[in-house]
Amino acid sequence: MRGFANPIFLCKGGIKIKRRSRTDIAVDILRVANNGAKKTHIVYEVNLNFNIAQKYLEMLKEKDLIIHENGLFITTEKGKAFQEMAKELKL
Question: What are the tens digits of pLDDT across the range 45-64?
Fold first, then answer.
């Protein structure tokens, strides 16, 4: 389903589920980590499993949007700027 920003799926029973974009998930992680957060807190707040969260955290670290310091993930200034840009571009 790549190419669609937020596809909607119908599940059993006719319940609509809207999938989050990669950007939405990244912004959610950065929001939780604004003041520092452990991986477990990020996993529960953003509603991800540990494996998926690890992939996102590695990607955010590679792009210098988040740092890992003393057991906490902390959003960098670049990460905060990214959050603001994503917020402004959200339709």
Answer: 999 999 999 999 999 999 99
Who wins on pLDDT, 45 or 89?
A: 45
Between CA 68 and CA 12 the distance in angstroms is 40
Sketch out the chain's domains with CATH numbers: 20-89 (1.10.10.10)
Contact indicator for 73, 39 with CB cutoff of 8 Å: yes
Helix (H) or strand (E) run with residue 50 in it? helix 50-62
The pTM is what?
0.81
- Give 8's strand partners: 18
Two tokens at 21? 């974009």
